[in-house]
Each structure stands twice: as structure tokens, then as C-alpha cells.
Design a protein that fits this description.
Elements: H1 7-15, H2 36-49, H3 56-65, H4 70-79, H5 86-98, H6 101-110, H7 115-125, H8 131-137, H9 143-152, E1 156-160, E2 166-170, H10 173-181, H11 192-200, H12 202-212, E3 217-220, E4 226-229, E5 234-240, E6 243-252, E7 255-262, H13 270-285, E8 288-296, H14 302-311, E9 314-316, H15 318-327
Parallel strand pairs: 7-8, 8-9
Antiparallel strand pairs: 1-2, 3-4, 5-6, 6-7
Helix pairs in contact: 2-3, 2-4, 3-5, 7-8, 10-11, 11-12, 12-15
Length: 333
């Protein structure tokens, strides 16, 4: 029996072809990361042992950004100052990915991969999600072989939307963020803001869940209303006319699901107003909004609940988000 809090150690011991223990294990079981509240407790404990403190709401932000992975939270706990702000959380995470302990950790982990595997990981991290898009980035490598090896090692996830529509994503979003920040021949280095939005944000987590749903799923929202979320053809972020829409998921043709995401405390009625602005934008572009949802991890103020009842807006919080994540085969934070 071997266990560890990081996929890197599991890869070294159990999945790496060079490991002498490669064939010694009959089963590899991947457990979900900690839920956000438990992850925040761990970070608080780590900092307390160093004589530092952290506000609960700030600890929750760090727990979400690091997707509840214990090892990453321990690294960050040592790097953070006492009483950090939310802005300092993001600054320290980026600094750690660029030059800190997280960078050293991922550098050592990355050394284990072949050139082909590294190339595929870099391509996926920069938005090349299909086989053809990845192959176009690097014409001289065996993309099929590299993808098979990375999927077997649980580094890359294969999402089969249809028999002809298959996409690939990196399972560990913190590792993906590190990749995005790195230089590689033929590819550009991304901006820090894009890293936060595309890899580490709560809205990015929700988008990946919705895109990865393996089948239509029925849930009961925070108002007690029944909602069936279908498999979506694609899920994106929409920005136009100074309006940001966190989630726009294509159901079929011009029919879409629209979502607004919020993390940190109970959502207030302003989130419904933002969602309605997004709905008007979508209609202006030519979409037909079939489902409108506010995703708020910590729930909703009563005023928003009453407003949503009148406006046919669904409200989804942590319990339902974890149910969706389970259906999508993603970490249930």
C-alpha cells in the first residue's frame, strides 16, 4: 500500500515506466481533494503552526484557487504573510508557480515526461483541446502515443462528446496554470490574468464541469425546483459590450444555457441583475436562452432567492455543484 497527497508521487511510484514498482500494485485509487471548508481549515492550521493567521474568507479563496489539494495548500501556507488579503493570495500563488516551491515541485515532476509528452501538455494548456489542434502545434511528434501515455497516467482527461468530437484537458488545474506560465519553443507565454481566469478561477471550474457532463443530469436547485442540465456541445466565456458572461453553454443550434458564477459568500441580488444583462446580450447576438443559472458555492441571500422564483432563474450551490462534478468525473471540492 502506498499513498500520497500529490499525483506526482503516485506517478513516480506506480505509473512511471522506469519505476521498479510499476507492476507491484493491482489497483490505483484517486481520491477527491478536500472540500473547500476542510481545505481552508488545513491552510489555517499550517499558518497557525508558523505563528501566522488568516481570515476565514481569505482562506476559502486560497482553498478554491488550489482546488483543495493538501500539498499545494501546505506550500502556500509557508509562503503567505500573516493576515494576507485576497489580492495577496493570488499574488503569492502566481509567485509560487513562477519561482517558489510550487515551481520547484512541478519542475521535478515535469522532468519525468518525454519531449513528446511535454509538448502535448504545453499545447493543451494553451487551448489546443482536440487531436488535430494538438498535432498542428508540433508536427514532428507522435501525438497519439503521447496522449495515450498521459491518459494512462491520469495526467490528461479524455472527454468524448460524440464519436467524432473528442477533447482533452489536463486534470490538475494548478499544474495546468504552471504550464501556461512557462516558456516553450513555438508557443507564447500567457498573461497572469488569463491564468487566473482560465485555470484557477471558480468560473473555470464550473465551465469544465458543465462541458464534461457525461449525460444529462437532474438536480433540485436551492429553491426546490427541478432542473435537468443536458450535455452541452461547447461551453465558453463571453465578453462583449463591456458585459462578461461567465458561462454560455450551447445546448443545440442557437439554444443555450447561461450562467453567472460567484464564490466567497452568499450571493446577493446583484448577481441576478448581472445574469439578466448577460441574457439580454445573448439574445442580442442571436441566442435563445433556455436555462439561466446562478452558481454560488456558499448559497444565496433570501432576497435573491425570492427574486429568482419570479424570474425563472435556477440557483445552484455547493451540494449540487459536487453532484455535477461527480457526473463529470471531476474533483468534488
Amino acid at each position: 500500500l502506498a499513498s500520497d497527497t500529490s499525483i506526482g508521487a503516485v506517478y513516480d511510484i506506480v505509473l512511471d515506466y522506469a519505476s521498479p514498482l510499476l507492476k507491484s500494485f493491482q489497483k490505483v485509487i484517486f481520491l477527491d481533494p478536500l472540500q473547500v471548508s476542510d481545505a481552508a481549515d488545513l491552510l489555517t492550521m499550517v499558518m497557525r503552526k508558523q505563528g501566522k493567521s488568516i481570515d476565514r474568507d481569505v482562506a476559502l479563496i486560497a482553498a478554491q484557487r488550489l482546488f483543495g489539494v493538501p500539498q499545494y495548500l501546505i506550500f502556500i501556507g509557508y509562503a503567505l504573510p500573516s493576515k494576507p488579503t485576497k489580492e495577496e493570495i493570488e499574488e503569492v500563488i502566481i509567485e509560487e508557480l513562477l519561482t517558489g516551491t510550487l515551481n520547484i515541485y512541478f519542475e521535478l515532476f515535469f522532468e519525468k515526461f518525454s519531449y513528446e509528452q511535454k509538448a502535448v501538455l504545453y499545447a493543451i494548456s494553451r487551448g489546443a483541446k482536440t487531436y488535430s489542434a494538438i498535432a498542428k502545434q508540433f508536427t514532428s511528434i507522435n501525438t497519439v502515443r503521447a496522449l495515450k501515455e498521459l491518459i494512462k497516467a491520469n495526467i490528461v482527461r479524455k472527454i468524448e462528446k460524440t464519436r467524432r468530437r473528442v477533447t482533452y484537458t489536463i486534470y490538475d488545474k494548478v499544474f495546468e496554470a504552471w504550464l501556461v506560465l512557462k516558456e516553450f519553443p513555438e508557443l507564447r507565454k500567457e498573461t497572469i490574468q488569463r491564468v487566473l481566469l482560465s485555470s484557477l478561477s471558480f468560473e473555470a471550474y464550473i465551465r469544465e464541469i458543465l462541458y464534461s457532463l457525461r449525460q444529462a443530469i437532474e438536480i433540485i436547485d436551492a429553491k426546490g425546483d427541478r432542473l435537468v442540465i443536458p450535455k452541452l456541445e461547447r461551453v465558453e466565456r463571453l465578453t462583449k459590450d463591456n458585459i462578461d458572461v461567465d458561462v454560455i453553454g450551447v445546448i443545440e443550434g442557437n439554444k443555450v444555457l447561461l450562467g453567472e458564477c460567484y464564490f466567497g459568500e452568499k450571493a446577493k441580488i446583484e448577481k441576478a441583475l448581472e445574469l439578466e444583462r448577460g441574457i439580454e446580450l445573448a439574445k442580442k447576438i442571436g441566442y435563445e436562452v433556455e436555462i439561466a443559472i446562478i452558481f454560488s458555492y456558499f448559497g444565496f441571500h433570501q432576497q435573491l432567492i425570492e427574486y429568482a422564483k419570479k424570474k425563472n432563474i435556477y440557483l445552484i450551490q455547493a451540494e449540487q455543484i459536487r453532484k455535477l462534478a461527480k457526473n463529470a468525473n471531476l474533483p468534488q471540492i
